[in-house]
């Protein structure tokens, strides 16, 4: 009899445990559903903040949607300090001493090669329309774009420690940050802008969470948590854009990528005034190995009167400005200028990614094969464009990505840079 009671009691306990287990599963399932719903709500709120009402919409051949948004409704004006800001439609002053970009087809490369073909670089969405006067083109952010980010909060932002430290060629820096560079730089003076002509490639990316870019950096402050940076150039970033297209981009931060700043117009800050160029949109055509070479010119300078930092693309497009109040150190001037390439190496245990920088070829291959920056200049305190003095170079691992400088009459100060990443000398 006792055995019967014992077995019944054990059976009841078993039933209770099963019930608790089922209830636990239901609870977990509900929590998971609530978590998914909460994330969807967060994503939708973020999309509503970013995607402003459009006056006109243009579908690009590459799948992008370009919204023509009234200039006064752009994301910049979500910033509390910009609520009553009067848009400055043109800079008060342009830097003196600009190279004539219209001469580009007549310039000779630093080494004798077949004549380069020069054609205006356009953005792909131009094939299907243009934005009306009084609007700016904004690449629409889609739900899948935000979901690729580690969190809604981190969408559109670089990871920390994305700045090369030329004075500290510490190999531990590579492993700590995952970012690698091949750059030329100047420091030790006050700088009020920088310019470069960069040829455009479509480097191969190994992992979706890696990127490859070529840009200029306008830097102020220390390399600690108060670093100010303005950046502009071209990039390939599957994580950010969902494809391998080469795209025009900008970036800014006033606290070393921690809480401030973003790519393009993905947060409030940069004020765009141009109706023809979309930040983050694809650039076409791109350079081909041993074939036609295409380049873009980028100028960033500080307006001596208002103090804002302006950006110009090519010879014709003044895109807009970063208001000076966004920054601490850059409210005055920059202390360092850098030009060059950057990649992310996400391979573990000391292995190296095969993500390419620039053309994916080393500098010694030269024109038509390697990637270049030419006519690099800085803006001085008198708002004049000058050749950089004391140009230095830096790369964490020269057998993976390298840089070589030179100068001549047509190209001014220039350098070749880049590489394939993983190779027999870069395992």
TrEMBL record:
It comes from the Eukaryota. InterPro entries: Glutamic_endopeptidase, Neprosin, Neprosin_propep. Pfam families: Neprosin, Neprosin_AP. Residues 1-31 form the signal peptide. Residues 173-427 form the Neprosin PEP catalytic domain. Keywords: Signal. Residues 98-118 are annotated as: Disordered. Residues 100-118 have a biased composition (Basic and acidic residues). This is Neprosin PEP catalytic domain-containing protein. It comes from Corchorus capsularis. The lineage of its organism: Eukaryota, Viridiplantae, Streptophyta, Embryophyta, Tracheophyta.
């Amino acid at each position: 009899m006792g055995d019967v009671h014992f077995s019944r009691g054990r059976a009841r306990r078993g039933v209770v445990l099963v019930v608790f287990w089922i209830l636990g599963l239901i609870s977990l399932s509900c929590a998971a559903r609530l978590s998914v719903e909460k994330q969807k709500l967060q994503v939708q709120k973020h999309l509503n903040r970013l995607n402003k009402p459009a006056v006109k919409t243009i579908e690009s051949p590459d799948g992008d949607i370009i919204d023509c948004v009234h200039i006064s409704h752009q994301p910049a004006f979500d910033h509390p300090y910009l609520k009553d800001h009067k848009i400055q439609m043109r800079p008060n002053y342009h830097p003196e001493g600009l190279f004539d970009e219209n001469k580009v087809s007549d310039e000779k490369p630093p080494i004798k090669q077949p004549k380069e073909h020069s054609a205006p670089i356009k953005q792909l969405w131009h094939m299907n329309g243009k934005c009306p006067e009084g609007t700016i083109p904004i690449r629409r952010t889609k739900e899948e774009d935000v979901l690729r980010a580690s969190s809604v909060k981190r969408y559109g932002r670089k990871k920390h420690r994305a700045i090369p430290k030329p004075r500290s060629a510490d190999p531990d820096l590579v492993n700590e940050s995952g970012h690698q560079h091949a750059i030329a730089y100047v420091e030790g003076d006050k700088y009020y802008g920088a310019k470069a002509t960069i040829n455009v490639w479509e480097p191969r990316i190994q992992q979706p969470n890696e990127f490859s870019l070529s840009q200029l950096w306008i830097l102020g402050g220390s390399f600690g948590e108060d670093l100010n940076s303005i950046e502009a150039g071209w990039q390939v970033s599957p994580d950010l854009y969902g494809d391998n297209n080469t795209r025009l981009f900008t970036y800014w931060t006033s606290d070393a990528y921690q809480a401030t700043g973003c790519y393009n117009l993905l947060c409030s800050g940069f004020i765009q005034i141009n109706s023809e160029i979309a930040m983050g949109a694809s650039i076409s055509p791109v350079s081909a190995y041993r074939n036609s070479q295409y380049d873009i010119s980028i100028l960033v300078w500080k307006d001596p009167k208002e103090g804002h930092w302006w950006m110009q693309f090519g010879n014709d497009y003044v895109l807009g400005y970063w208001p000076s109040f966004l920054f601490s150190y850059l409210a005055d001037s920059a202390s360092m200028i850098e030009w060059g390439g950057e990649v992310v190496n996400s391979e573990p245990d000391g292995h190296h990614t095969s993500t390419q920088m620039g053309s994916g070829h080393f500098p010694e291959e030269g024109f038509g094969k390697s990637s270049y920056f030419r006519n690099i200049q800085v803006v001085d305190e008198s708002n004049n464009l000058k050749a950089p003095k004391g140009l230095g170079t830096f790369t964490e691992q020269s057998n993976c990505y390298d840089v070589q400088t030179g100068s001549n009459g047509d190209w001014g100060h220039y350098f070749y840079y880049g590489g394939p990443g993983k190779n027999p000398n870069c395992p």
